[in-house]
Amino acid sequence: MKKIFGAKKSQDPPPSIQDATDRIYKRGDTVDEKIKKLDAELARYKEQIKKTRPGPAQEAVKARAMRVLKQRKMYEGQRDMLYNQTYNLDQVAFASEGIKDAQQTMTAMKAANKELKGMMKTVKIEDIDSMQDEMMDLMDVSNEIQETLGRSYNVPDDIDEEELMGELDALEADMDFESNSVPSYLQPDKESDLDSELNLPAAPSGHAAAPNRQQEDELGLPTVPHASIRT
Fold this sequence. Notes:
By secondary structure, the protein is mainly alpha-helical. The chain contains six helices and no strands. Helix 2 packs antiparallel against helix 3. The longest helix has 67 residues, at 56-122. It is elongated. The model is unreliable at 227-231 (pLDDT under 50).
C-alpha cells in the first residue's frame, strides 16, 4: 500500500519564535554588510568627483554614485523592515513567556492547594483547643508541685502577720531598754568626773622663780659671807 499511495512524509516541527528571530537577525547582519560596502563605494566616488573636472567624465561618476545611492536606500528600507519584524517577534516572545510563567504559577498553586487540603485533614481545631487546655492544666499542676516542694516544714501555715509585727516591736523595745540599763562602771569615764574624784591641785601657771646662786671666788669656791662689824 505504501508503494501505491506513498508513505506520509513526516512534517517538520514549526519554527519557534526564537528560531524566527535568529533568522531575521542573520538577514539583518547580511544587509548591514552590504550597506557598509556601498558606503565605501560612495566615498570613493565622492573623491573622484572632487578630483575630476566638470564634464562627461564627472557626469559618469555621478551617475554611478546615484546608482549606488539608490541601492543603499533600498537596503536601508529592508533593514528597517527586518528591525520591525524583530520588534514584533520580541513582543510575541515576551507575551508567550508571560503566559508560560502564569501557567507554571497556576500549576504550583494548585499543587500547594492540594497539599494544604491534605494537611488540613490531619489537623483539627478541636484537637488544638483540647491540647491547649491540657497544657494549661499541666502547668497549673506543675506550679502546685513546685510550691509544695518549696514549703518550709518549721513554719506553720496559720501565722498571723500582725502578731509577728507585734513581737518585732517588743523585741526592739527590749533592745533599747538593755542599752539604757548598762552599769556605771561599764560606761566610759568622763574627764571632768575623774578630776573631781581625785581632787588634784591645778597645775601652776607662769615661769618658775630662779634659785639664788651663791657667789664664788677666783678659784671657783664659794665665798664666806663677811660678818658685819659693829662699832
